[in-house]
Specification:
This protein has helices at about 45-50, 80-85, 100-110, 130-140, 170-175, 240-250, and strands at about 10, 40-45, 60-70, 90, 115-125, 150-160, 180-190, 195-200, 225-230, 255-260. By secondary structure, the protein is an alpha/beta fold.
């Protein structure tokens, strides 16, 4: 089957399932549409994402991909012409990944002609926060034509030197100095050596924000957010916090609360 006139393809966007590309990888290259320029898809693994960029969609310019799990992979992109032509790339994954440095950053550097980039990620086990300086030095300046960068990045379980505990101002400084409006919060969740950092631009334009703890103090109104998860393993989530959430996310449709600690106050 060949779809010679198909240019825009949205696949499996309205349910909670994801699409595995494994059956497609066994097909002949003549079975793919060479005319697709815009693809919006959910996939199961990072291998699937790399497969999409490996020459099967020769006219692709915009790729919006939600990846269920980003694991270590040995797959490499052999067709560099395809990634060179991508102008808009969105990568979203709400599951924890250990592969930010080994898999995600190298891929972004390959897509060097990007003009618009969206990243929504939950990185785990790093030695430092993903802060403004990192995003600027390791991503932004490596993509010379980039004019729009939308991000929502959580770094979790970072082992911090007790002698130096970064502040929100430290995390934001590189962006603030360049005139960007960003916000972040840091939660030293378990003790002073293990922590979580959440950084994102303002205004926030993504429909789903990464999981927050009750350390989060919203700055402004997040009118685009429709889905939110509040997860706090060691503290109770009280009524006053829900009031803040209702004010900050007025159009919220889907709220998940994960907490094992009973509320101290059960009424207003």
């Amino acid at each position: 089957m060949e779809f010679t006139n198909l240019t825009h393809f949205w696949f499996n966007l309205k349910n909670k399932g994801v699409y595995t590309l494994k059956p497609l990888t066994t097909l002949s290259s003549t079975c793919y549409s060479s005319s697709i320029v815009h693809l919006n898809i959910k996939v199961k693994t990072f291998d699937d994402c790399l497969w999409l960029l490996d020459g099967h969609l020769s006219q692709l310019r915009t790729l919006i991909v939600h990846v269920e799990h980003i694991y270590n992979t040995s797959k490499v992109i052999n067709n560099t012409e395809i990634v060179f032509n991508i102008k808009c790339f969105s990568l979203t994954s709400f599951c924890i990944t250990l592969e930010y440095v080994n898999q995600i950053v190298p891929l972004l550097r390959q897509i060097s002609q990007l003009e618009k980039l969206t990243l929504s990620l939950y990185a785990h086990g790093r030695a430092s926060f993903i802060d403004g300086a990192h995003l600027n030095n390791d991503i932004i300046i490596k993509i010379p034509y980039l004019h729009t960068f939308i991000f929502d990045i959580v770094t979790e379980d970072v082992i911090i030197n007790k002698a130096y505990l970064p502040t929100s101002d430290d995390v934001r400084r590189a962006f603030i100095q360049k005139g960007y409006n960003v916000d972040c919060y840091i939660d030293y969740l378990w003790n002073e050596r293990r922590s979580q950092c959440h950084i994102y631009p303002l205004p926030f334009t993504i429909k789903r924000i990464n999981a927050i703890t009750n350390k989060y103090l919203p700055c402004g109104v997040f009118k685009h957010v429709r889905k939110l998860c509040v997860s706090d393993p060691i503290r109770s989530i009280e009524y006053d916090f829900f009031v803040l959430i209702s004010q900050a996310f007025p159009l919220l449709e889907d709220l998940t609360v994960l907490s094992t600690v009973n509320q101290k106050k059960t009424t207003k």
